[in-house]
Design goal:
11 helices, alpha/beta, globular, two-stranded antiparallel sheet, TIM Barrel, 15 strands, single chain
């Protein structure tokens, strides 16, 4: 079976604000200055990603670990300006690129009250895709909606813009799952959420609870191993989902972590990966690679 490591490369805990299209970093949204919040540059923090970038990327590259990055375009542009040597670190054959919005927009307007019509949404997604492809000189294949919220138009827009797959839908499962083709022709790679009544106790396959100290490392590893154990289809997949900043920033405490704490979080991540690597039937891959190898397109 397949394991996908998926990294949402975005601003420090993107936070939606009423009547503001772009997301605001959690570390900044507590400021009372409307001028600050309304400026998409000044309301964006990437300090968490900067603080943990080198050790995390070194870990991935040292292990040649297949990883999919869903890039938020404005964050990525600013990050590459601040950490200029970082562009080369992404230039690995085992890395795959996707899009995660331009400014982490709330496409449905559930939180902001600013629902985008189809033309507006298409313009935002196209702008993000064009920017990521310009920054890396590499085509992107996939999309992950900000806040994991698609509109009724999103999949049609993705098809028009030549995306191949989406990964923005949660699916309850106690084992690995397989992608499916939508009526718009987009391949959907759902993100697993285990049932509450299962031994995994309603675990999302995002690593939020681990990094927020709400689920122990031992329990996290046991849950993923249980998902693998339950999986009988060799072509099924499980995604491990995280954020580029979460090794270095604790949301509940609203504080950046020390170097030692960052190292500890990366070691916890390594413990999970190492536990999964022991199983001979586990293959680390990416959605596009899965599609190519399984002749799904």
């Amino acid at each position: 079976m397949y394991i996908f490591i998926c990294v949402d490369f975005d601003r420090d805990y993107a936070y939606p604000m009423k009547n503001i299209l772009h997301a605001v970093s959690k570390t900044i949204q507590l400021d009372s200055s409307n001028k600050l919040l309304n400026d998409p540059f000044k309301s964006l923090s990437i300090q968490g990603t900067i603080n943990c970038f080198n050790p995390f990327m070194k870990y991935l590259t040292d292990k040649n670990l297949h990883t999919t990055f869903y890039f938020e375009a404005r964050t990525t542009e600013i990050f590459l300006q601040k950490v200029q040597e970082s562009a080369n670190m992404f230039n690995k054959p085992f890395f795959e690129f996707g899009v995660h919005g331009y400014d982490h927009e709330d496409l449905r307007g559930d939180e902001t009250g600013l629902r985008l019509n189809k033309n507006e949404e298409a313009a935002v997604i196209k702008k993000a895709k064009d920017e990521i492809e310009r920054l890396f000189s590499k085509e992107v294949s996939g999309f992950r909606a900000p806040y994991m919220k698609l509109t009724s138009n999103t999949l049609d827009i993705l098809s028009t813009l030549d995306f191949i797959y989406d990964s923005s839908i949660y699916k309850e499962s106690e084992s690995g799952i397989k992608p499916y083709k939508t009526k718009e022709g987009i391949i959907e790679f759902p993100v697993i959420k285990t049932p509450k009544e299962s031994p995994m106790k309603g675990m999302y396959t995002y690593l939020w609870p681990l990094f927020e100290n709400k689920r122990s490392l031992e329990e996290t590893i046991d849950n993923y191993l249980q998902l693998v154990k339950n999986s009988v289809d060799d072509n099924s997949f499980i995604s491990i989902n995280l954020h580029s900043w979460h090794f270095a920033y604790n949301i509940e405490q609203n504080q950046f972590l020390s170097k030692d704490e960052i190292v500890k979080n990366i070691q916890s991540f390594d413990s999970l990966i190492s536990a999964l690597e022991i199983d001979e039937k586990v293959v680390f891959s990416t959605p596009k690679k899965w599609l190519d190898e399984n002749n799904f397109l």
